[in-house]
Amino acid sequence: MSTTGGTEDGERWIRRFHPSPASRVKLVCLAHAGGSANFYLQLSALLAPEVEVLAIQYPGRQDRWHEPVVADIGTLADRITAALRPWTGEPLALFGHSMGAVLGFEVARRLEAGPGRPPLALFASGRRAPSRTRDDRVHLLDDDDLVAEIEALQGTAPGALADPELRALVLPGVRADYRAIETYRCPPGATVATPVTVLIGDRDPRVDVAEAEAWSEHTTAATGLRVFPGGGHFYLADAWEEIAERIRQDLALRPAAAPGHPG
């Protein structure tokens, strides 16, 4: 595993599992609530060397467990964007799952404001459009109910968080992420000029097709939707190869050489 090696922010925030200096595009990957950079290890292997994954590691988990958690989408987006600034001289795209999809949208907004190149594409996985809010309060549940929620979405194996010491390490980051996404409110009329591809499972209890299609309201560019049959919230576990191929196909349509926004 490698980091950017360029800045302290890059070393803290970005994980490079398969460094590919000659890659045509860098794909910035943002995990779900409670997730970590390692969630994208398999995708990184499938895309390398043509597309290099820059997986974002949130504070408060794995090798950053000792750092204070961040429970606000805007603050996370600001810090991630700052860590990505050294990379904005070359083509970047964004992939986010669940909470990471909204975070990707907010990072795209900040990257588009410059300096540097705007993103080539945003892949929004397992998440309804940013303006489609619900009165979810998972972050207020007690530990047992929070673990039950995670297991119900198949975000972890049943019983994996039974150990009290492991819970003490993992749950603060999970709770902070849920608080961040559940208290997030999309600025009225917020859009990006980045093309958006939406990916969902057809059995996902967190997003339906209408909510996914509403992503078209948040970009002035093209949108696409891919629904995976039989897939729940973590449909990705059985679909990484197809996802990687969709990413390759979409990015092949985005001119990567010229500065300014891709056509």
Automatic annotation (TrEMBL):
Gene3D superfamilies: alpha/beta hydrolase. GO terms for molecular function: hydrolase activity. SUPFAM superfamilies: alpha/beta-Hydrolases. Residues 28-251 form the Thioesterase TesA-like domain. Keywords: Hydrolase. Belongs to the thioesterase family. This is Alpha/beta fold hydrolase. It comes from Kitasatospora herbaricolor. The lineage of its organism: Bacteria, Bacillati, Actinomycetota, Actinomycetes, Kitasatosporales.
